[in-house]
Amino acid sequence: MPRVDLNCDLGESFGAWRLGADDEVLPHITSANIACGFHAGDPGVMARTVAAAIARGVALGAHPGLPDLAGFGRRAMDVSAAEAHDLVVYQVGALAAFAAAAGTRLQHVKPHGALYNMAAARPELADAIARAVRAVDAGLALYVLAGSGMVAAAEAAGLRGVSEVFADRNYNADGTLVSRRRPDALVDDADEAVRRAVGMVREGRVRAVDGTDVVLRADTICIHGDGPHAAEFARRLRSALEVEGISVVAPGRGDAAGSGA
């Protein structure tokens, strides 16, 4: 039976600001990427999100980003490989501590926003991030952009690389994501996004904005938790996958999702 993970970026509120519908999304996903305080999140939000994910049997992951609350971590910064390494160690270590305090452990790391896209384009950043994850916990999986240099970086570091695809983002012909600065960055039609997701899992390809097909591996599908209809999209996507006979389960777990954190 084909299988895929559904992951979502959560815990992105901080201070007095509330973002996302985490409680509504959690019942439909299998992995949570939890913000670690740099692009979003704060200690209280991190603790509450870890507890909520555990209660739902959702796998815990760290979501380290650039130190840019004002830009939500989506603005590129001129960080060196050494700086990227230390940023990731700091943030993954922080969330790992909250997981340990709750009696469990992290299962994966997924870089956020601009850091993720920069790593996909710059091998030295991808290698630094992978080495940072290994330094904290060599048993963690690293979520990587399918078909990018991040895949090789994870393998070189001895990590399990989980190839990620995006149902609600458009692709360039080279497999990179269309910049959010462009009007065609997002797939706004929910039906089309669901069809694309099923196709990526079933066929291992997606149509790029120039009309060509991009071949990719779909181990996990990202749902953006800050979207206005994230919970409804997560519900529809999971239902469509299961109707197609695709098992929805976190990497490294059994064939049934929700088996415990």
Residue share in helix? 25-40%
| Distance from first to last alpha carbon | 23 Å
Q: Could you list the spans in which at least 5 consecutive residues all have pLDDT below 50?
A: 255-261
CATH class: Alpha Beta
Number of extended strands: 10
CATH superfamily: Glycoside hydrolase/deacetylase
CATH architecture: Alpha-Beta Barrel
β-strand percent reads: 15-25%
User: What's the helix-strand series?
Assistant: EHEHEHEHHEHEHEEEHE
Task: Profile the largest sheet.
Answer: 7 strands, parallel, barrel
* SS element count, helices: 8
Mean pLDDT: 94
- Summing up helix and strand content along with how strands pair, one would put the structural category as alpha/beta
* Largest sheet, spatial ordering of strands: 1-2-3-4-5-6-9
Total domain modules = 1
Globally, the shape reads: globular
- CATH fold assignment: TIM Barrel
Brief overview, please?
The protein is an alpha/beta fold. It has helices at 22-25, 43-55, 81-101, 113-121, 123-136, 149-156, 190-203, 230-243; strands at residues 3-10, 31-35, 59-63, 108-109, 141-145, 160-166, 205-207, 213-215, 220-223, 247-248.
Plain-language structure description:
With 261 residues, the chain is an alpha/beta fold. The protein has one domain: Alpha-Beta Barrel (TIM Barrel), CATH 3.20.20. It has helices at residues 22-25, 43-55, 81-101, 113-121, 123-136, 149-156, 190-203, 230-243; strands spanning 3-10, 31-35, 59-63, 108-109, 141-145, 160-166, 205-207, 213-215, 220-223, 247-248. Strands 1-2-3-4-5-6-9 form a seven-stranded parallel β-barrel, surrounded by six helices. Strands 7-8 form a two-stranded antiparallel sheet. Helix 3 (81-101) runs parallel beside helix 5 (123-136) and helix 4 (113-121) packs across helix 5 (123-136).
